[in-house]
TrEMBL record:
<dbReference type="GO" id="GO:0000155">
    <property type="term" value="F:phosphorelay sensor kinase activity"/>
</dbReference>
<feature type="transmembrane region" description="Helical">
    <location>
        <begin position="21"/>
        <end position="38"/>
    </location>
</feature>
<keyword id="KW-0902">Two-component regulatory system</keyword>
<dbReference type="InterPro" id="IPR055558">
    <property type="entry name" value="DUF7134"/>
</dbReference>
<dbReference type="GO" id="GO:0046983">
    <property type="term" value="F:protein dimerization activity"/>
</dbReference>
<protein>
    <recommendedName>
        <fullName>histidine kinase</fullName>
        <ecNumber>2.7.13.3</ecNumber>
    </recommendedName>
</protein>
<keyword id="KW-1133">Transmembrane helix</keyword>
<keyword id="KW-0808">Transferase</keyword>
<dbReference type="Pfam" id="PF07730">
    <property type="entry name" value="HisKA_3"/>
</dbReference>
<keyword id="KW-0547">Nucleotide-binding</keyword>
<feature type="transmembrane region" description="Helical">
    <location>
        <begin position="136"/>
        <end position="156"/>
    </location>
</feature>
<feature type="transmembrane region" description="Helical">
    <location>
        <begin position="50"/>
        <end position="66"/>
    </location>
</feature>
<feature type="transmembrane region" description="Helical">
    <location>
        <begin position="102"/>
        <end position="124"/>
    </location>
</feature>
<feature type="domain" description="Histidine kinase/HSP90-like ATPase">
    <location>
        <begin position="312"/>
        <end position="442"/>
    </location>
</feature>
<feature type="compositionally biased region" description="Basic and acidic residues">
    <location>
        <begin position="347"/>
        <end position="356"/>
    </location>
</feature>
<keyword id="KW-0067">ATP-binding</keyword>
<keyword id="KW-0418">Kinase</keyword>
Length: 443
């Protein structure tokens, strides 16, 4: 039985007109039976007896409920008018049963104001028709009709409120689903951007070092085979390091749960010394200095632990800035890296004495000259943009410096901004180029 009813409900929902027609015919049959039961017993009706007209009005009023889904309030008003007319013509028969599904329909499918008007119209119709029939003294029957009308109105309103509540829940779930999808897309885009920055930093640095070493090996291959072999060994080590770092970065893109990505510690300020060694081997003499509060010299081990994100951002800043100096500063240039850790702030300063700045740096210029005298006199390779810039006049040096701000330095700007830092990138007074960032540190 339960399975039969469960299969019948969907069919009734899919065929509302047939359902309403069956309901209208049932109401007509019940109303006609009530009308016959209300007729006075005795002989045949007289010529002025309106029984035939009453039955016609009853049938018309009940059959109109088949259109209750189209214009329920209009149908209700017409049924009430027919019921009052029927009461004025004959005491037999009533259409109060036909008003019940109409009141329910309006309460369940229309707004509160219209449903209240329908409830008031139903009560008023019952009162007027009862007055016309002269049977207001039977309070029990009228209270029963009013109670039934009120009950169906409340059922209709509760169903409407429940549908509205469920609709709001569905809308909220849909909004939350769209918000989650948007957050997921944003997270994926952010992760892709992060991976792109990491890949750029790793590839740009190591490939630049490998390019310089390869050019040096090519130039000294005939005259200094041992030096060429050392350069090739450095290229091999740099390539292996680049592959290892790229393997760690790209490992997060693997989706198979059975193949976990190899994870290692991210580089930080403690690895800057190794980075400086690589720059020395690549032909860019670089001095590294750690400072504590008040500018006192410190060691990498003496720097307090930093937040992982700031630590990685500082390392990538130094890596990209030194790579930039290696590619663009020119032959014989030197670089300086200063890391100062103070309470509440970390300052990272990378500068070089690139083109057009020789002899203009005072004490640091003398250190650069000493470094150049100790370094091999092999000519370092230049990129096409750097070579062209070296041949221009002093007015073109600013343009050459601007060309040094590429995607890597733009990525540095994004990293510094991510942690609320302040970044300065550009030519330094007296010649050369500098990258300086200040990261706020929370207690």
């Amino acid at each position: 039985m339960r399975n039969t009813l469960g299969g019948l409900r969907p069919w009734l929902r899919d065929h509302p007109l047939i359902t309403d027609a069956v309901l209208a015919m049932l109401l007509t049959a019940v109303a006609v039976l009530f009308a016959h039961g209300a007729e006075p017993a005795g002989g045949p009706p007289g010529p002025d007896d309106p029984t035939g007209t009453a039955l016609a009005l009853i049938v018309a009023g009940c059959l109109m409920t088949a259109l209750r889904r189209r214009r329920p309030f209009l149908i209700l008003c017409l049924v009430i008018v027919i019921d009052v007319t029927l009461a004025a013509l004959s005491r037999s028969g009533s259409l109060w049963l036909a008003t019940l599904p109409l009141v329910y329909t309006i309460a369940a499918h229309r707004g509160l104001a219209l449903s209240l008007c329908a409830l008031a119209a139903g009560f008023s119709g019952q009162f007027v028709s009862g007055t016309a029939r002269g049977d207001l003294g039977d309070w029990t029957a009228h209270l029963l009709m009013a109670a039934l009308t009120m009950t169906l109105w409340l059922i209709g309103r509760s169903l409407r409120l429940r549908r509205a509540y469920l609709s709001e829940l569905r809308d909220r779930a849909e909004r939350m689903h769209r918000a989650r999808e948007a957050d997921t897309r944003a997270a994926r885009a952010e992760e892709r951007s992060r991976i792109a920055r990491e890949l750029h930093d790793v590839v740009a640095h190591h490939v630049s070092v490998m390019t310089v070493q390869a050019a040096a090996a090519r130039r000294v291959l005939a005259s200094n085979p041992d030096g060429a072999r050392e350069a090739l060994s450095a290229i091999e080590e740099t390539g292996r390091a680049a592959m290892a770092e790229m393997r760690n970065i790209v490992g997060v893109l693997r989706t198979g749960p059975a193949v976990p990505a190899e994870r290692g510690p991210q580089p930080g300020l403690r690895e800057i010394a190794t980075l400086v060694e690589q720059m020395h081997e690549a032909g860019l003499p670089t001095c590294l200095r750690f400072e504590g509060a008040g500018g006192a010299e410190a060691t990498p081990d003496g720097v307090p632990p930093l937040p992982p994100g700031v630590d990685l951002a500082a390392y990538r800043l130094v890596q990209e800035a030194l790579t930039n100096s290696l590619r663009h500063a020119g032959e014989g240039a030197s670089a300086w890296v200063t890391v100062r850790h103070e309470p509440g702030e970390l300052t990272v300063h990378v500068e070089d004495d690139g083109r057009g700045s020789r002899g203009s740096r005072g004490s640091r210029g003398s250190r650069a000259a000493a470094a150049r005298s100790e370094a091999p006199r092999s000519e370092a390779p230049r990129s096409e943009a750097a070579g062209d810039a070296a041949d221009r006049t002093a007015s073109g040096l600013g343009r050459a410096a601007a060309e040094r701000i590429g995607h890597g330095l733009v990525g540095i700007r994004e990293r510094v901004a991510l942690y609320g830092g302040i970044l300065r990138i550009g030519p330094r007074p007296g010649g050369g180029f500098e990258v300086k960032a200040r990261f706020p540190l929370k207690d």
